[in-house]
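Note to self: keep these together.
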Amino acid sequence: MTIAAAVLAAALTTGAPHLLAAEDGAARPVETAGLPPATEDVEAHAELPAPLSEEDAARYAGIMTLQEDGKWREADRLIAKIGNRLLMGHVLAQRYLHPTKYRSRYAELARWMADYADHPQARQIYKLALTRKPRNARAPRSPAWTYAGGTMAADALDSGRNGLRIRGRAAKIESRVRALVWRTRLTAAEDYLARPQIRGALSAAEMDSLRTRIASGWFLYGNDENALRLVAPAAKRSGHLVPAARWTAGLAAYRSGRHEDAAAHFEAMAKSDRLGRWNRPAAAFWAARANMVARRPDRVSHWLGIAASEPRTFYGILARRVMGLDSGLRWDRPVLDGEHIAALNASAGARRALALIQIDEPRQAERELRLLTGAEDPALRASLLAVSEEASLPSLAMGVAGAIAASGGERLDRGFYPVPHWKPEGGFKVDRALIYAFMRQESAFKVRAKSHAGARGLMQLMPATAGYMANTRFRGRGRDRLYDPGLNIALGQKYLDYLIRHDQVQGDVFLLAAAYNGGPGNLAKWQRRVGKVTSDPLMFIESIPSRETRLFIERVLANLWIYRERLGQDRPSLDAIAAGARPVYKAQDNIEVADAESDAGKN
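Structure:
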């Protein structure tokens, strides 16, 4: 029996509905004792090189503490005793950039630039030097580095399912249509496009792109007939240029019971050369789904296989689970052997970073190491991944893994999905995999992350939400307390636990992600609106009006399933979706084991 035939048989003959023809399933929170992490996560750690003697490390740590408080004379007495002056650039940068207790002179700044232009503070000091340069003084030396490496270079989110760029006058028309759709004035948007002067300003593909945007609005507000009226012809004309037309037409056709039409749209989209690594598996998976429901099992395996070829995406993971395949991920621990240690010792920036790790200055160490992520030496780049893991620099690990993949190297899953050593105040109360899944999406493990809306820290907590969880207020400078990892994770996991038990969520991890991103109030509105047209969990996601929330759910769930595997745990929410049921949160961590391993840094 083929895979497709077996899946079809399960869908048609078992009592529980199957993923490819899903129906409603009750969702209730279930807490169960879990398993300890996989044995690969408790291997002995490599020992990082220590450039400083114990005495100098203690002196540098003391100097940094004294200077933070503006105690310059006491700091100078310790500086005089330093034997290894490896970190003097950092010491002086801390002094010269002190916000309140030191005013640096131009001569000091220029001398620093002459000696330490390769340091991560060089840009700040250079700008400050220019503001304090006397009229006749020589300009300071320029910074000797170019910042390299983002956080998710090879794991960037797709920009959407519409592959057509609209420019010029057409862009102004698009902006007007976008505004009308956002205000749900969909008929007005259609009338606007029908004006002769508007039609004359657009190419056929641009017109179909804007029709697709309006049709998406009709679909998201539950009107499949109007959506198909607009988008089905647009998809046939311009689907090769506007993949979003195929996507919207496929969803509207599927939800309205026209499964063969839906399959045709999804198949055409999956063949497009304008798709990113998240969108192709989505189209292929829905092509398999539509063919399954249309009772064409011979076409299912092919499309599931295409979806399964992207094992780090939401629909790719689902496809692999349905097909009975392993995850396709590798968790090899990065090597730190003689070659890699030699590469670190050969780099002045790496030596400084290792010294900063010695004196418990991880933030400055990460800044040094980020400057090296674009290094051409493969041994040096590989060693950075080992250092980031041993020193618990998860944001750096993602950046290094992204740089390696972007340059044609292998995808290092251990770097893309790091496990930090941070522990919430009071210990873990919610599974680490769930916390890391949200943290990776919200902040990419950047401790000082801040959104334009004011959300702060690893879990991107709004001060009001954090205050509600902590029963206190975070105002003024007090808001910066939310950058503290222990406090931020503690309040974040408390909010997760609150949402898990919320009446709107009831343990459903899809709804949990939606509520975390959009708020329980918006979730309630979406449930009222979307629930009228579908009881299918996957269709529910794709029917949520907020594109940001749709993407957020898929990214967080993919993160969750991948972290479950990294920690050697079962994936009950994935199994539930594969069985056509609601994905209910089931705790897997042994909390005492999780706390102990976080303390020991064994993940």
